[in-house]
Amino acid sequence: MEPKTTRRGFLALAGATASLAALSQLRALPAQASALPAGSFFSADELAIFGSVAERIVVPGDAAPRFTQTRALETVDRMCTALSPPLTEPLPALLRLVEYGTFVFDFRFARFSRSSAEQQDASLRGWMESRFALRRLGFYALRNLSLLAYYAQDEVWPAIGYAGPLQDRKGAA
Amino acid sequence: MIRELTARDGDLVLDADVCVIGSGAGGAVVAAEIAAAGHRVVVLEQGPHWTSSDFTQREDEMLPKLFEEGGMRQTADGSVLVLQGRNIGGSTVHNLCYAFRTPDPILALWREEHGLEELTPQAMEPSFARVERQLKIKQIHEAELNVLNRKIRDGARALGYSGFVTRHNREGCIGAGYCLLGCSYDAKQSMLVTYIPKADAAGAQIYACARASRIEASGGRAQRVLGQVIDRHGEEGASIEVRANTIVVSAGAVATPDLLLRSGIVPNPQLGANLHLHPSVLLAGFWEEPIHAYRGIPQSYYIDEFIDLEKNPHAGYVLMPISGFPGLSAVNLPGFGSDHFASMQRFAHMGGLLVLLHDRSQGHVAPGSDLARPELHYALRADDAALLAEGMVHCAKVLFAAGARQVVVPYLPEALLLERGDDLAILTRRGVELGKIALASTHPQSTCRMGDDPKHAVVDAFGECFDVSGLFVADMSVFPTSLGAPPQVTTAALADRTAHHILSRLS
Asked: Which of B27, B29, B151, B320 could pair with B250 in a Cys bridge, judged by C-beta atoms 3.0 to 4.6 Å apart?
């Protein structure tokens, strides 16, 4: 099945695509303006979408810096650069599906990044609880990347009581 | 010689007596034993060659380096996370060093139900002894238990549950606690610092970033391995050809059947079937006081109250303490948002206990869209699901008896928070269903199982394929059944046995 960038195409993808890899065709969607610089793996607008998703995955309140106040986006970009390309190729398309999928999955005419926090949470919950394994896999890919990257930030560790790596290891500065 | 290939290297054509694919608990042993006897050995490892100076103790840097699919490999339906190594040394570089011999009742089961008459404890003794000597396996002393393992031990004792302090393969351990991310101190006696250097010293040619993509046979006999350089950045490079009459596949219970299926030289319906996972569920306990469970030896106590292989070698479960670092702990806690962060704020108070199932359930491995992503399919039998649920009840009991104030059960999408005094029967009522609770596996096995009958097995008692002479398998794929115990020593000992069988043939 050839993915289409139409509403019908989205529906078909959500329901029947057997592999996230097929979603890579969706990269043709128009990019959004963003103040973020492009990463090695993600474009600037993809990083902006990732940031808006991750801000709802990790909600630290006042206890720790928010996701986008740290270098977690850079960490995500670096991790995806380090992973094998077949594993990461679908991620840009997945991000766009989250961003624009609100039209299809949530019946709302606002992109994910321009929705309220409550709407964003509801949208992510829809992904997490979807009866389609592909959507659930997509959610967990973004969730797990967000969590791994956020909790890799040294400035977050005091809020959770983690002392961090030891300094006497080989190769340590 | 250990050489990591880059995308700029030219084509590689090599001749060898033995070509070994994979360098983990099986492949490293085979390579070292055969090279030490003076034969020409070529090892192809698809992952890079990291050493202790690369192990930064940071999850964001180490997970993509050490694990297949960056630690995100899952079964096809996303219900079970499967962790496997992809580097020189394989999973032994990130494992937690439990060092158990194959349980005698399991060997008896393999003899009685799979026709492996020669697999007696006595026949296996020389292999166990060699492996244990090389890996410096020793008893962990009570004084070496970290806070979490001490608490779990005390909780188990308070409940009257059987358990013990285990043996491990560490030498000069300082208790940093970062075993899962690679040992920065070379204290873990993984293949990376034991058998791989032995193979190297004996003249084996060990290539990292060398992915085998096809094995060819001619006239029913193994002939050559074809592959390609995939460098540490994922860039594709030159082609690889290794001509050898003996080929040993030790790529693990996922990649080994995938490679053999893709090669199309083993027309055996058992190939890729019979996948066991030792699936596990991790319950997180939260203590009033910080316990910093991530420091010290992560796993040193083992609760075997609920497995009696003498009475029933087919089923049971064990309970194992487990701790993690912030990222992995966060991934293991269900959900997202402010509630998730609130749980993470108590990270230093958190310690885990997992139930690991000796599973009768089975699945299979099928080739995926590319070599990096084979497909794993697994279904959980109702009786196994019930055992896992029962094990979760006992995990919670032990955690509370160990002093935990709260226990989080990783149901999806909403975790279940248990308070001391809650009725734990809720766990057996809710049960375990794939996709509705976080499950993980670090021990995929049995996809090229060993036996005496090609109708039911892929390889014989020495790991040689029934269908192709000179083609061997030496990894967890060959276990005829679920092992029911940590697999490192069994894998290495069976590989040692395979190596000495090959040596007898070469000489």
From this structure: B27
